[in-house]
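Cross-check.
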Amino acid sequence: MKIIDVILTKSYTGFYFDDQKAIKNGADHDGFMYVGEPMTEGFQKVRQAGEAISIQLILEDGTVGYGDCAAVQYSGAGGRDPLFLASDFIPFMEKEIVPQLIGEDVEKFRPLAEKYDRMIINGKRLHTAIRYGITQALLNATANSKRITMAEVIRDEYNVEKGEYKAIPVFTQSGDDRYDNSDKMIIKEADVLPHALINNVDSKLGRNGEKLLAYVAWLRDRILKWRAREDYNPIFHIDVYGTIGLAFNNDVDKMFNYLLEVEKTAKPFHIRIEGPVDTGDREGTMLLEKALTEKLDAAGSKLEIVADEWCNTLEDIKYFADNHAGHVLQIKTPDLGGVNNVAEAILYCNEKGVGSYCGGTCNETNISAQTTTNIAIACRASQCLAKPGMGVDEGYMIVKNEMNRVIASANKRVK
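Predicted model, tokenized:
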């Protein structure tokens, strides 16, 4: 089935672009706004509206494949591609990409995805957001033309072991509203929670980590008080954006001792800490997270390190996995470019015995969330992010409902 037309439109994401460098350097809130000057190239303000480009691939029989080109909230940070604005990239795509897509046969997803993910134009690879959106649309077109789910396409083309399709844990993120949003998560019995957005040492972590400890204690007590059943035991997953390293000057022993205190405070719940350090480069971040992982394991700790910053591309993920730099690796889906890389990353982590967190960003769309949920199900990821947005309910609804639909539909065809 061939593509006969391509439609591009400006779209909006479920959140905003935020200048992480400015925030880490003290940009403060004024209501929902951030006060201060941007510090990352491309930003006009510290916080600005999230944008995407929607792609519709029109096939010969009228079937449509949908995909959204979207980039992460903290674009331009941690080694990522620069800010992605629709007005900058639609003209480029119309000139350079659309003519190549027309006439392509979507019978097979994987070879087409790899072609566009690896494409070089004017001596450069395509922006990760463009690769992300095109490959989503190609996957959706292949699935729709075959009248099956995207999960089934992935499992067939990546030779994933056959068997029943099963639900995977869903991780909800709170953003700055880490108290009321946590209550929403408790009511809906989210599998993994709450994210918490600990992205500033003074205001959120505390110079000695005391503010985070107080929050973990509050969350523990809140669940014990309000859970509807005693066997509801969610995993705590808190993203600290490198602030533990900043507070303790990247001293491994001090960070290790602090993490043991965090683990003790969270009991009886299991806890994960995402992004404990960020040295500003891949090698330094990997080495410190590897050291923390080894030290925690040697001590018999059950606290898990989740790698995020500088673990962006498929190559990065394989590098962190090979070095066991973290118990779980976030596969931040827009950062990998083509969604074919998301499938490969999950399968590689699973093979290496490292947790595979099919993540992403609050700054995505419903289309990209549904697509990556299919891939997470097909490849049996360790957990999947509820996205987009920071309001909990919307992202949880999109991902959980897509998961339930896909599983029910695909299992009818399992042999």
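The first strand starts at residue 3 and ends at 18. Residues 128-146 form the longest helix (19 residues). Passed to J.P. for a second look.
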